[in-house]
Design goal:
The protein is mainly α and 158 residues long. The chain contains 6 helices and no strands. The longest helix is centred in the C-terminal third of the chain and has 35 residues. It starts with a helix and ends in a 5-residue tail after the last helix. Keywords: Membrane, Methyltransferase, Transferase, Transmembrane, Transmembrane helix.
Length: 158
């Protein structure tokens, strides 16, 4: 793809919508190719645990943003009014997105379908390229050395 086309994709698909698209794609793959479904004993409790953990991590990220009174809108990171580095943000620079990934991992376990699970790395790659990197540029421009120090100290995902 051309660079200008790639730039047009940045910050265009809200992460929640991308989670829904990815989850639907996983479901459709599982239904289209049922032969690839694997026996996975205990998959329901494991799927629920992953999904619950994902929801808790994502909600903790939202709560930290709310406490700091900064925007949770992923399409306008330049509107951030505070650099949030406490709470769950001590462990991940993107706990909301990590939570979404854990939710999708739970969905993959519930589906027990190997090809559907292959969409998980595609979700991470899309998020890194078209959501997180543009957010990081905006935060670096807005918060300068404070963000740079935070980015050196805390990993992008976990």
């Amino acid at each position: 793809m051309r660079r200008d086309t790639l730039l047009l994709l940045e910050l265009r698909i809200p992460p929640v919508l991308l989670v829904l698209i990815t989850g639907a794609g996983m479901f459709l793959l599982a239904r289209a190719f049922p032969r690839w479904t694997m026996p996975l004993p205990g998959r329901v409790p494991l799927a629920l645990a992953l999904a619950a953990t994902g929801a808790a991590v994502a909600l903790a990220g939202v709560a930290a943003f709310r406490r700091a009174r900064t925007t949770v809108n992923p399409i306008t990171p330049q509107a951030s009014s505070a650099l949030v580095v406490s709470g769950v943000y001590r462990f991940s620079r993107n706990p909301m997105y990590l939570g979404f990934l854990l939710l999708l991992c739970g969905w993959a376990v519930l589906l027990a379908h190997a090809p559907a699970a292959l969409l998980l790395p595609l979700f991470v790659a899309w998020m890194n390229r078209f959501q997180i990197r543009p957010e990081e540029r905006a935060l670096a421009a807005r918060f300068g050395d404070g963000y740079a120090a935070y980015a050196r100290r805390v990993r992008r995902w976990l």
